[in-house]
Amino acid sequence: MDYGEESLKQHKQLGGKISLRLKDDLNTRDKLSLYYTPGVAAVSSFVASHPKKTRDYTWLNNCIAVVSDGSAVLGLGNIGPYGALPVMEGKAMLFKHFADIDAVPIILNVHSADEIVAAVCAIAPSFGGINLEDIAAPICFEVEERLKNALDIPVMHDDQHGTAIVVLAGLINATKLLGKDLSRCRIVLIGAGAAGVAIAKLIHQYAGSEIIAVDTKGVLSTNRSDLNEQKRYLASLNRITHSGNGIMPLRKAFKNTDIVIGVSQAGMILPEDICTMNKEPVVLAMANPTPEIMPDIAKKAGAAIVATGRSDFPNQVNNALAFPGIFRGALDNGVRNITDKHKIKAAEAIAQLVDKPEADCIIPSVLDPRLTEVVARTIT
Fold first, then answer.
1. Which of 7, 144, 213, 227 is deepest in the core (most CB within 10 A)?
2. Does the annotation mark 91 as catalytic?
3. Which of 31, 36, 53, 82 is catalytic?
4. Known catalytic membership, residue 36
5. For 237-256, how does the pLDDT look when each residue is reduced to its tens digit (9 = 90+)?
């Protein structure tokens, strides 16, 4: 199937993927009076006097905003608000299908941290949670942190944390299958944006692994003077000493490593790179729509386990394994702050759904019916 052509046809036929559904019919005069005027005045007066009860009388108990400025959409980059809308509708569709959460796409035609934070704070009273999506680094870090401090509802940038949770789940099972200790593994991380930073932080929090992060110029090291705060953190996670002039290139970073994680772009991992890694290397090539290296080529070069972000290959590392359950648990349990402890428990729970890990099955399918409930139980 040509997914692009068929997707265009299907989206046009449906006129978008989501819609509002009423919870009751307005088929009598009494119902109209109950749900709108005059009856609704009693509800409005009550929640105005008891704001903490608003969740019990409105959709706040089951509704989140999926917010993006369209600056880092999938593998498409800064394609603007209209280009972002189909993706945010898709996210809302996944929330509803997997967790029965009503999600509303909110596309902002602003790009500075101040403008995004102001806009989200202004609309926040309408929602029980905020899912930030496809906001470019480094602004995304500031936006999330400021919103978490400003709002009393859960806020999560899924490109960061959903990705990190699923990557950690996959690595827990990959290292278990190969008989390796994740804490002793050396990891090459290609991509120092939102997902890369969150992945590194969660793995380091969980296992303390050495992580050699790479950006477009080369290996991040503490002797580089061109790094922002997040990249300086990544540079602190490796023990490389580079005596040569300039920046160590990516190709040299692979030597004697156990795992490579790609959150960058196609072509960034070569077969000869895998050949220089330790025995039975693990390759997570997650660029979309084209991975950093195709699975068959990676396996031919010696990779023991390969994962991608695509559904047409085994081991799909997809945020949808995590975010529906994360927000389901947060909404149901009144959790305001989604912590690293929550994320690690969620990753462990996802990993445990695979009873016997195999090379082509280190993480469960996105369609596993147990996922949402299992993950939601970890958010308490």
1. 213
2. yes
3. 36
4. yes
5. 998 765 556 788 999 999 99
